[in-house]
Amino acid sequence: MKIKELVERLNLEVVVEGDLEVEVTGGYASDLLSNVMARSSAGNLWLTIQGHQNIVAIAQLIELAGILVTENFSIDDDTIKKAKELEINILRSKLDTYELSGKLYQLGIE
Fold first, then answer.
1. What are the residue boundaries of the DRTGG domain, all occurrences included (predicted)?
2. 42 exposed, middle or buried (CB, 10 Å; 0-12, 13-18, 19+)?
């Protein structure tokens, strides 16, 4: 499923629009950056409450489909600026990580 489809189906806010046509191949939920680096894969959608610049660096390094900030947590202006430069998708939702993980799984994102 493509990012733009998830945005529509889950009513996600697009904070930074990179390539909304990118295919999401799976998901990973963690706030521990070292876990994301070790266990996520290219094409994954990363669910986190983190909003600092390091999330963009990790998304670029792993070639993630995007970052989904949960619970409507704030995202630093510098993070948004860097994500725009690198065309990294950053999405946001009011829902918590647990609920979003379930919804993504129901949509076929494993």
1. 6-106
2. exposed
